[in-house]
Amino acid sequence: MNRVLAVLVLLVWSGGAPALDVSDRYRSPRSSERKVRPSTELIVLHTTEAPARSSLNKLCDRGEAHYCVTEDGTVYRIVDRDREAFHAGRSMWNGKEDVDKFSVGIECVGYHDKEMGLVQIRAVRDLVKELQKMYKIPDERVVCHSHVAYGAPNRWQKKNHRGRKRCGMLFAMPSVRAQLGLARRPASDADVRAKRLVVGDDYLRRVLYGSVDTMKGKYPAVAAGTSQAQSSGGLFGWLKGGKGDAPPAAPPKAVIKAKPTANPPSAPPKTIAELKTRGYEMKGVVAKGVTASQIAGGRWNSSDTYYTIRNKIIPGSRIDPAHIEKGMCVWMKK
Ligand SMILES: [Zn+2]
Questions:
Q1: Is the pTM above the cut of 0.85?
Q2: In a 10 Å sphere around its CB, with 0-12 CB exposed, 13-18 middle and 19+ buried, how is residue 218 labelled?
């Protein structure tokens, strides 16, 4: 799809909603072969345990996730969200096997026991929130792969056991869940309780259901009762759109650098959600024949006008006219 057409499709498809920060660059050729899932009961978070490029290539080749979120906060769509992606492998939740049949899988580039940057965490949060709304999934059913993976009997473990993987483990930790705007987590392992599985990794059990939280103190405090995510609703509002065609594939570029401190009111907004909270609305999208000054008039280069594209938010006062490009959304005060 050429760029102009892509912008047009986007405009029609999204109804003018801003923020198309999803890329189809690694959309899996397997997607269309996959069955539509009969139900969606869980969102499963994974860590790739490998760098972005190799992870994206593998996920795309094999259709092993619905989305992949990279360190710079770019969200890649891999498999259509309503179809089955092969992300959970041997898995069980509450007596039901093959979790792929009733879950959405999100791979996050990173490692199960390493801190993840805030830009990435916030992108995961916004994606999760949008999917929770879409599929009506409560916080305690946003789980990590290690919650659902189980191992078959082997030399060391005679029974089916929980603890085959520690994948995504950090997403069970209360401090990380707070960043994701998740107030609750699964309280206990129904499959262990019902003796369908035994505990095969006691450390993992203490992370998933106990008080082990190695990320404690590494993230900014989140005020109790004010889920950051709730205020950011709509960033991925376009996800509700059609599932057929896609927004233009944009290569990942520079992103907003998040600081682990509260944003003073005078600083530029860091997210689309924040722009909205501060009373800005999207006035138009730069396209062929539609210039920034046609959208924003004389205020096109004002510090009170913002341009957004691919996770970047640029104040008008800092925009280089030579770098105003098609697809940029122009935001001004209502
Ligand atoms: Zn995994």
A1: no
A2: middle
